[in-house]
Each structure stands twice: as C-alpha cells, then as structure tokens.
User: Fold this.
Amino acid sequence: MNLNGFKYFFLSGKGGVGKTTSSILMALYFSQRGEKTLLVSLDPAHSLGIALKAKLGELPKKVEEKLFALEVNPEKEMEKYLKKVEKEARQIVSPAFLGEVEEELKLAHSSPGALELATADAIYRIAVEGRGFDKIVFDTAPSGYTVRLVASPNSIVKWWKGLISVREEALKYEFLSNLKEKRKLKEIFREDPILKVLTKRLKEYETLKELFTGKETAFGVVFNEGLLPREIGVRTVRELEEAGAPVKFLVFNRVKNGIESLKAKNKIVIKVPEFKEEPIGIEKLKELLKLTRWEVK
Ligand SMILES: Nc1ncnc2c1ncn2[C@@H]1O[C@H](COP(=O)(O)OP(=O)(O)O)[C@@H](O)[C@H]1O
Ligand SMILES: [Mg+2]
Assistant:
C-alpha cells in the first residue's frame, strides 16, 4: 500500500500533536513530486496560515510550486449553509410557513452538528471545485470534531431519505384521488419541484458519504510519543473506523529516538522527527520534510 492511489487526505488527532505541521509536510511531499496539491485547513483556529507564514483566505493561494492553500471559516460556512437551506425552503414551502422556517433556521444555528454539517458542505464544494488538483490534503480540527464530521452525512442521508418518502407518499395520495390525472406517477415524481430539491441534496450528501468512505480517501491519525497521547491516538483510529472512515496512515510526530513500534498492520507509517526549532515557515518545513521517513508498505 502506498499514498499514490489516494486523492483526498484527512489528518486527525488530538490538539497540538502536529496535525497542521504534518498536513503541510504531506502536501509538500506531493507537490515536490510534481503533483498539483491543495492544502485545506478546516480548523477554526486558523493555524495553517500561521505555520506557513502566509495570509490565507477562502480561495486557493499559491504558496509553493504546485502547492496551493486555503482556509475554511466554519462560522462563515454555517451562514452560507443556512442561507442555502433557506433559499431551498423558499422554493418548496408555501409562504404561510416561511416565518416558521426562519425560526427553525435560527435554532439550527446553535443546534448540535450544525457546524460539522456546514463544514461537510464546504468539503463537498472543495472536492467538486478541486477537480483540477491531483491531491487535496485536509488539516482538520481536533479528533472529536472530525469523527462527528465524518458521521454527519450518514445521519443526514437517512433523514433526507425519510423526507423524500414522505413527499412521494403525499404525491401518490394526490395522484390516486385525482382521476383526471393523465401523467404516470413516475413522471409526477420526476417533475415535482420539492422532490427535485430533496433529491439533489440527497445526491450531494451521498457523494459526501462516498468521499469520506471511498477508495480515493485516506484518513490519517497523528500520534505523539508517550502513553497518554498514544492511547488517545489509538482511540481516534477506532472512532474514525467505526464512523466508516478508513484510516490508512499514521503519523508519528516529534519522534526522538525511534518510537516504540505500534501495531500498524496495513497502515502506512510516517515518522517526523523532533525539529531543532519550531517548524514555522515554508523553508523550515522543507528542511523537516527532508528528515521525515515514509514507511510505505
Ligand atoms: N516535529 C516537530 N518538531 C518540533 N516542533 C513541532 C513539530 N511538530 C509540531 N511542532 C510544533 O508544535 C506545535 C503544535 O503543532 P501543530 O502542527 O500546530 O499541531 P496541531 O495542528 O495538531 O494542533 C506548533 O508550535 C508546531 O510548530
Ligand atoms: Mg492545527
């Protein structure tokens, strides 16, 4: 197994273990091999720009030959996401209910999982718009958040399917009670504007689910030395795999004298040594990359 076969990389791990640093090393590794690479930060703390010493925004910015970076602002994504949902609701809800929908959306803002869902929406958009890139590396926020992020399309797909079947039932009932209706039920389903919106969104969420669990995706967990960080790392691997995300690689960061080997069957191992100083700025990160060992199985 090696990293070439994957296109999307998600790095997870406890806060401060070196996710941002490892994401940059990985992206540099690919770009130096001539692959057009996009590095995306999903961390609300915006540590990527700091580590690269570059001002990043929502659009890809060139930071090196073949290497581009951007930062997703989850709060802003949530605003965008709720606006999009509201626009869709306007299309499908009768005006009399719009006030209620707006109230719901206000509540949705603070509902659990909304931030993750909005971030998932941004990931979907980046994946679609990022077709021109060979590799896309996502630097994520601390573990729990990533696990919830991966799990979010699963529940929403179920929910959306439920909405679709409710709508279909309603149409069927109307169809059966209207004897003058000449069209076939299938046609009615196809032309119904509400079903159109629902089906389009369902497809997006299904694609996202595929993106998280598909063949082109590799999740990785960053570890540090020491019993506690190691336990937390092992737990993150398990939680991600339970959520359906295939963990393909492990990064052992700040390795001093050879980390005790972990049972890493079928996983690619990347060992990043402790650097002589804080690896901030692209030149120092390139230096650290030269010292990094890639154990591809
Ligand atoms: N291999 C390393 N050697 C020395 N310092 C490191 C190394 N990896 C990370 N650091 C430093 O540790 C801190 C946390 O790393 P960071 O990549 O931001 O972690 P995370 O993204 O997981 O929160 C940063 O100051 C970073 O520069
Ligand atoms: Mg970080």
About this structure: The mean pLDDT is 87. The pocket of magnesium ion (ligand 2) is lined by residues 19-20, 43, 47, 139 (CB under 6 Å). The domain at 3-77+112-154+216-295 is CATH 3.40.50.300 (Rossmann fold). The radius of gyration is 22 Å.
